[in-house]
Amino acid sequence: MGKFVKSSPLAHFLRTGLVILASAGAVDWHALPAAMAQPAPSTPAAAKPDEGRETARCLVRSIHALPDGAAFDAQLEPLKAQLKNPPLSAWKSFRQLDKQELTLPQKEPGSFTFPGDHRGTLQFLEKVEKDGKLRLRLRLELFDGAAKLLSTTVLIDNGGTLLQAGTKHSGGMLVLGFTCQMKKP
């Protein structure tokens, strides 16, 4: 768990859906608004875009760690063993600042914010099953404005927690906790 390293500004990629209508003949522009207002014909066999796609649910916690004191926020009890052992054992007090829930359809990033006007994305890439154990492969990216602070791909146990630390915050350090689990259909 190292410090964030600022990199060069990101190139901004935008996903857009563009529909181009073309006609070889004359178009009745007055009839077009009425035609657009009518619902498109449905086909019973057509599946919804998210149907059949796997989904992960993630809880993103922003935690303030301080080098002194002994306060431990009761909301962080599920993470106590991770927070009180190395490499975080040098920090003595832990307080949850924020909690955000994300539902992540496979290969679609979800966004979250964290203190210091930072933002991040978490993306569920795939599930990995080996020897009867289910894990989730996730892509985590953290940003400070246009600067990318971190971009990594991780593998965590289903229902497990990943801790990411290193950003200085109000006399202490910011720890981000990501607890993710496959969503049941």
Secondary-structure topology with pairs:
Blueprint: H1 32-37, E1 55-66, H2 80-84, E2 93-105, E3 110-114, E4 118-130, E5 133-144, E6 147-157, E7 161-169, E8 172-182
Antiparallel strand pairs: 1-2, 1-8, 3-4, 4-5, 5-6, 7-8
How does this structure look, described?
The protein has helices at residues 32-37, 80-84, and strands at 55-66, 93-105, 110-114, 118-130, 133-144, 147-157, 161-169, 172-182. The protein is mostly beta strands and 185 residues long. The longest helix is centred in the first third of the chain and has 6 residues, at 32-37. Residues 1-50 have low confidence and may be disordered. It has a domain at 55-182.
Major beta sheet, specifics?
Answer: 4 strands, antiparallel
Order of helices and strands: HEHEEEEEEE
- Overall mean pLDDT: 77
Helix proportion range: under 10%
Strand order of the largest sheet: 2-1-8-7
Instruction: Please report the total strand number as a whole number.
Output: 8
Shape: globular
Radius of gyration: 22 Å
Detail the poorly predicted runs.
1-50
Amino-to-carboxy terminus distance: 34 Å
Structure characteristics:
four-stranded antiparallel beta sheet, globular, disordered N terminus, 185 residues
Task: Summarize it.
6% of the residues lie in helices and 46% in strands.
